[in-house]
DNA sequence: GGACTGACAGATATTGAAATCTGTCAGCTG
DNA sequence: CAGCTGACAGATTTCAATATCTGTCAGTCC
């Protein structure tokens, strides 16, 4: 299928794995399938990834990092802390909701992957709350927010909005009225945050 | 096993079903098992419940209603709205956490039941948010809370605290630091609610 | 000699036949 | 005759055999 003459890199294997996962789903995607898609033997794949689990986790990490990077742009933006906080939460919700609604099967695939991923998800969540902490810290410094412990507050905000980013709730993101519910929660949290 | 001479009532069937579920788990609990525990034929069970699903849902409803009733006592209590809101949320969290930690298998069983239950869970959630609405409405009337739409605010509070009552998060309720996280979220929400 | 292959052992998944379960109902029983 | 039984058909689950996959490694090929 793919040009078998290029050198085999971790990157090419990850791309092929994404494609195989997209086609076959998480239950039926095998290392043999990935190798076949690349025109190599499956032994070669094991030269770059110690186990199938490690390969899947690397794919997961790439996928999660793409979201982190988009959100980092908002953190570094130049609006007021309130604006950036609202924009950040809305962007996170919108990104997830779009993925879940646009291609439910692929989203389900990645939900399975994140569930089995040991550390990748934990690191991703730590990364996101650290971004949130930055925004809240900025707000405190500017005198717009009250938060004795910005990191703890960031965790609280992240957890309180869980219903709008946790994949477990994906089914409800398509129902009418979610927008309003999201706004209600964010408004309530911001009222608690603003001085 | 059970006295086969008493008259067969829906209530006795529900008790036997709970016991069978506790013993065998949700996957292996059959209507035949329930009938055997009662010393009757399985046809008799179908005289009181149209289907196995209806029987399971009735058991689920009973279980959920027990929680609702405990919380209703707090709603009707005589503390300040803030105290009652804090107590209500803490009681909900504590009840769930206790059940999940005390007998994880039974909790897993009921998690499966609630997942398959069509309307019982929806009604339970509606009941809980209606209790919350009552407390918040009281707070608004007393001038302690600001909430243009108490019902919408109740939903927001309920959803924002989902991590501390949604069974999907049960695993994390046992980890150290959850208490603090719960307090952080509730404090933030109350700051947003108080005038 | 560094990258790759392919045969292999043990682990995991698939399959289809046999067993069990659900829901019905004609008939028994007290 | 109201409540219960147990045999039954179709649906679902179990189980064991069969097939496939994972991870290794001695050997091949530039």
TrEMBL record, chains A, B:
Keywords: DNA-binding, Transcription, Transcription regulation
Keyword Transcription attached: yes
Source taxon at top rank: Bacteria
Protein name: TetR family transcriptional regulator
Entries under InterPro entries matching the protein: DNA-bd_HTH_TetR-type_CS, Homeodomain-like_sf, HTH-type_TetR-like_transc_reg, HTH_TetR, Tet_transcr_reg_TetR-rel_C_sf, TetR_C_27
Gene Ontology MF, one: transcription cis-regulatory region binding
Annotated region of DNA binding: 30-49
The UniProt record lists the keyword DNA-binding: yes
Residue span, HTH tetR-type domain: 7-67
SUPFAM superfamilies named among the record's database cross-references: Homeodomain-like (SSF46689), Tetracyclin repressor-like, C-terminal domain (SSF48498)
């Amino acid at each position: 299928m793919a040009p078998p003459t290029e050198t085999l890199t971790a990157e090419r294997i990850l791309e092929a794995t994404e494609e195989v996962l997209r086609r076959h789903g998480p239950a039926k995607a095998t290392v043999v399938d990935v190798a076949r898609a690349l025109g190599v033997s499956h032994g070669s794949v094991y030269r770059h990834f110690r186990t199938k689990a490690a390969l899947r986790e690397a794919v997961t990490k790439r996928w999660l990092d793409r979201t982190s990077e988009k959100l980092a742009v908002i953190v570094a933006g130049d609006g007021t802390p309130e604006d950036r906080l609202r924009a950040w939460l809305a962007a996170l919700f919108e990104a997830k909701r779009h993925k879940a609604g646009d291609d439910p099967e692929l989203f389900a695939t990645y939900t399975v992957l994140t569930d089995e991923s040991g550390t990748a998800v934990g690191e991703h969540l730590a990364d996101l709350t650290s971004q949130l902490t930055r925004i809240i810290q900025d707000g405190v410094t500017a005198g717009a927010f009250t938060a004795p412990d910005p990191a703890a507050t960031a965790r609280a905000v992240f957890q309180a909005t869980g219903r709008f980013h946790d994949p477990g709730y994906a089914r409800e993101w398509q129902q009418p009225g979610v927008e309003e519910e999201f706004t209600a929660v964010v408004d309530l949290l911001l009222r608690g945050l603003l001085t």
